[in-house]
Amino acid sequence: MARFTPLLRNVLGFLFILVVLGTIVWGVQMLWHPLDPIIAYVDQDVGAVGATLSSQMVAGVSLASLALFVILMLIPLAMRGVNNKQFLGSFLRGILASVVYIISDWLYGQLEKVGRFWLLAGLVLTVIVTVVLIEMITRAGKVKDEVGTRTDLMASITSGLAFALLTNLAGYAWSSVQKVITFH
User: Fold this and answer.
1) Cα(27)–Cα(21) distance, rounded to whole angstroms?
2) 3-state percent helix, strand, coil for the chain, nearest multiple of 5
3) What is the pTM of this model?
4) Long-range residue pairs from 15-22, CB within 8 A, at least 24 positions apart, any chain
5) Cα separation, 121 vs 93, whole angstroms
6) Euclidean distance between CA atoms 100 and 127, whole angstroms
């Protein structure tokens, strides 16, 4: 806790300064509009890049998400006090969680159309295949890291599945809210 308090104080101070500067810039923009040409230029360029990305193989990926990914990938690698090997391992486990999310969401959607029996059979088969893959990956590594690797993989896969569940629940909740709002 002794190391956390100064960090929290620095972060809050930095956020306060950002809010003050942002408020000043916003006020100047609202009164005198000095940034209008810059904003129009950036909107035009971002729109052109977004249209180019959409027309290519990366449809659905926005320029902002690509920029955020690159920034969040490079900053930790350049920082002191970040174990690059651990960062990349955690990154790959996050990718694994995303792949599990995509596959489970697709599988759930496909098997739900066929029937509940096949949905349950698919879920059981998915659990078996997942456990076998985790064991294969775990045993391919060092014996001393076996428990840690297995734990990390299980946590990553579980978080991917939890994200799939939360996404489905959020979609259901949103459709319910829309029905209430539109009185249908």
Assistant:
1) 10
2) 85, 0, 15
3) 0.56
4) none
5) 26
6) 11
